[in-house]
Design a protein that fits this description.
Rossmann fold, 10-stranded mixed β-sheet, two-stranded antiparallel sheet, disordered C terminus
Length: 316
Amino acid sequence: MPTNNINNVIKVAFIDVQCSNFAPSFLNMQRETNNNILVPTDFSDLASSALGHAIKVAQIYKNEITLLNIVDEGLFGGIFTSGNQSELVKEAVQNRLNNIAAEVKTKHGVTVHTRIDSGRIYKTISNIANEENFDSIIMGSHGANGLEQVIGSNASRTIQYADVPVVVVKNHSAGEGYKKIVMPIDLTIESRQKTDWAIHVAKKFNSEIHVAYQGSSDEFTQNRIKANVKSVENKLIQNGVNFKSVEIQDKLLENYATEIMNYAEKANADLIMVMTDMELGISDIIRGTYTQQIVNRSNTPVMCIHPKEIGFTYNY
């Protein structure tokens, strides 16, 4: 998540968990950020919803926001190369961005920068975020099978290419922030790396973490899962974070992703926290089938974290 100022250095760590006892060791790294949240917009309702989330996060973390409008070269061709018409379009877009920025500053006290660019939307978003060290990306999405929107159809690909955290929002109000966070845990190392991020967010939003895990009828697997969950619980206790652990039963005919999403809705959760893939495979946009389904189908906002950026060390 975003840090408090441009000079803050985030100490980032990898968690190396040994299967025998799940005891983590840390290898510290550093990342500097520009104290800015990147919010792509096509001026749709979804983009407005994402901006609402960004405003809430910016208020908590003392961030600024960059509102980005991109002309997709694949959809609109050379719209920016058609002389006077091009300039008129750019001027109209810029005026609209300026009006939004002024309104946000007046109503919420958050500074909003504006930017217009062209190119493939997901590549442009991720390149800007990566190269300019943005804290995070918050963007709207209809999901894989939703209505065709310029921003909505690019969220999954942005997650693939962005090195920074991405929060994917559908029509879900930011409300009071992320008060209830569902954190699915499994036996993978990447899954356990969410804990430090959850602590970081919970400390700022006074959140309750819902540690969700899939039970197993196999005794050996169940014991490993319980040991893993216990390790997560101990870390949350050590950091004074409120939490509850929920076991989702092992049902052969039920989908784990569906169960996670159903639980999040019943619990009125504000955020589901998942991990993205470390490797950029051709066909695998994000790690794991259930994670991909959650991002595409969840009505609850989803925070997607790249594994190499986990393990914050903060002064809580």
